[in-house]
UniProtKB/TrEMBL annotation:
Stated name of the protein: Uncharacterized protein
UniProt superkingdom: Eukaryota
Amino acid sequence: MLLLFYLYLCNIGLYFLFLFLFVKRLQQQTNQSRATEMATMAAANLSPAPVATEFGSSTSTRSFLKPLLFMVNSPLFRKFAAKVRESPTIATFETILETALNENEPKAKEQVLACPICYDTLIWNGDPVFSVDSTPRSTLKCNICKKSYSGNETHLDLTVASGTKKYGEYMPASSELFRLPIVSFLYERGWRQAFSIWGGYPGPQKEYEMMKEYLNPVIGGSIIDASCGSGMFSRLFQKSRLFSLVVALDYSDTMLKQCYDFIKQEENISNENLILVKADIARLPFASSSIDAVHAGAALHCWPSPSSGVAEINRILRPGGVFVATTFIVDGPYSYIPFLSPIREILGQISGSRIFLSDRELKDLCITCGLVDVTCVRNRRFVMISARKPA
């Protein structure tokens, strides 16, 4: 009998505790709604309507809630509730209840875009949703530099030189090549497929399957497809629905135009949480420690300064964030070419690209830029390298 009596008391206590949590939550929601209403009325130069009661103007509602509020706010009940809430079971239930209630509330969109000059978070003109269609038409402004950034019909321009009228920026030949309309048109219509023939590239779908193993720790987070080209991997990332935000990033306007066209032609792909951004890999327009993963497919050798690019990637990655890239390695019989290193330097100075002679060189690059757990997978000239930012 004594045990049954204790169980009965516990049930009564749990009932009133849950009732207490519900009422407090209702109070918070009402206060938030009232604060929003007051702000809106003030902005419109209107007088706020009088509040008949804390939860509504109904007399029946007021008469029901007043004794209930008096009971749950009494010192005796608060002491009792504090003791009951010390139970791990009750703490778990409260967490679940809080999560379930929060799921019904609109969440503030996390801001990751930043000024490429000072890296201060950009202020949106309005409250746009990340999408292929709406984001390019948005205007963003840096609160420190006072510079505005905008886009066109396909992508946002977040380069340092964005908005210049007289000054023009020129990149090395390796970068300018991919800004040619004919190269952008051919890239996914034969150019990239040729990598499999003479370079040992497995192909986009196989490469995607290979990198998923490295990306598993950051599934559900944001990913940047750096030097995305025509967006073949950007589309794979988006269709997988494994990431909360996919950023297709390239320095070439014509490549981003091709990327946009392919997205519009693709079936079963969502435009939400997918944006196209023009940016310099050595000056990425993202807040520090804001991105979960960065992918760079067949791109490292085209960057004017791979070390600057990898250092920027390390800056924007969250602790534990993942970097996955593919490139070419010129070794094997090519390593016996006399004076290969001086020849590489001369070619690099002329073209602005880099020829990697071993996977050890890639590992050293990542470690020098602060990344850890560097691994390489080879297939003839093809190499996939993965690393992560220290947690």
